[in-house]
Design a protein that fits this description.
Layout (H helix, E strand, L loop, with lengths): L2 E5 L1 H4 L2 E6 L8 E6 L6 H13 L3 E6 L13 E2 L1 H12 L4 E7 L1 H12 L7 E4 L7 E4 L5 E6 L1 E3 L2 E2 L10 H11 L5 H7 L18 E6 L7 H14 L6 E6 L19 H5 L1 H21 L1
Parallel strand pairs: 3-4, 3-6, 5-10, 6-7, 7-12, 12-13
Antiparallel strand pairs: 1-2, 2-4, 8-9, 10-11
């Protein structure tokens, strides 16, 4: 039976839950996992438990919307990940990787680029290649005039998303018959400041990018291609792979999200193919972690 340990902000400086497998098939390796902008720590724990069941130590990390953490997704410290990685290192795990989805994928790539001495592997599901504008769910959901993330107590340069408003998102989603925000990010990305682009070439280890061709939340497939091109341009020394699925949605990971997948037209229209894409992405991720 797996062992799990809860870590609090008050005690260790970060909020997490560590899942240790009964039979460790990934000796010396630990994977820090976090979700997207929804801030649902419960689903992150479920995912970490799933990875643990396959034999790898997994640390579910909450980075906002939890006890002792920020209650808006703005200027969230990269130090959350740094503290978690140092804690794992102190417990004897010498290879620490990151797994994130959506805004969590952006967070993973950013942290990997800023913490090359600690992080040696990054897996980004449906990522963006820049630091995004922060947001708040207080009252009517809205963007705030700040980046989503900060480093060393300083806000990072970020991409503004002027086309995003709850009214536009609802209108576009009703017309598309699925949840969509891609229109706002497609408009914003060409205008993103150069210093907001994540310096992925500073990551010290292999990178796996997973995306869906028709991601309706934001253009993750195009972002992933830009990441690969940037890595190639810098003669990146480690394996860097982008797997883009024709059938799939923004939620390109094992089906723990219940009915959430039904919010996407692709998943309603091609349920079997999307399910197969999620299963394949999980298998390929485990293979990637074995090779790491």
């Amino acid at each position: 039976m797996e062992q799990n340990i809860t870590i609090t902000v008050a005690k260790e400086g970060f909020l997490g839950k560590l899942f240790i497998p009964k039979k460790n098939l990934f000796q010396g390796k630990a994977l820090i996992q976090f979700g997207g902008s929804e801030g649902n720590f419960k689903s992150t724990c479920e995912l970490a438990s799933l990875f643990c069941s396959k034999g790898i130590t997994a640390l579910a990390l909450a980075y906002w919307n939890g006890p002792g953490l920020k209650d808006t997704l703005a200027k969230v410290p990269v130090e959350n990940i740094q503290k978690a990685a140092l804690w794992l290192q102190g417990k004897g795990w010498n290879k620490i990787g990151l797994w994130g989805i959506s805004l969590g994928a952006e967070y993973a790539l950013l942290a990997g680029s800023l913490l090359p001495s600690l992080i040696s592997c990054v897996i980004a599901i449906s990522p963006m290649d820049v630091v995004s504008q922060g947001c708040s769910s207080k009252g009517i959901a809205h963007m705030v005039n700040a980046p989503a993330f900060s480093w060393q107590e300083k806000p990072l340069p970020y991409m503004s998303i002027p086309q995003w408003s709850l009214g536009r998102v609802l209108q576009k989603s009703l017309l598309a018959r699925e949840v969509t925000m891609a229109f706002a990010y497609k408009d914003a990305r060409p205008k993103a400041p150069d210093d907001s682009i994540i310096k992925v070439e500073h990551i010290s280890g292999p990178i796996l990018l997973l995306s869906a061709k028709e991601d309706s939340i934001w253009p993750s497939a195009q972002a992933s291609e830009r990441i690969i091109k940037r890595l190639d341009a810098h003669n990146f020394a480690y394996p860097h792979i982008h797997l883009c699925y024709e059938f799939g949605s923004h939620l390109l990971y094992p089906s723990l999200q219940g009915k959430a997948g039904k919010l996407f037209r692709m998943e309603r229209k091609h349920p079997q193919e999307c399910s197969q894409a999620k299963e394949d992405s999980f298998i390929r991720t485990l293979q990637f972690l074995q090779a790491w």
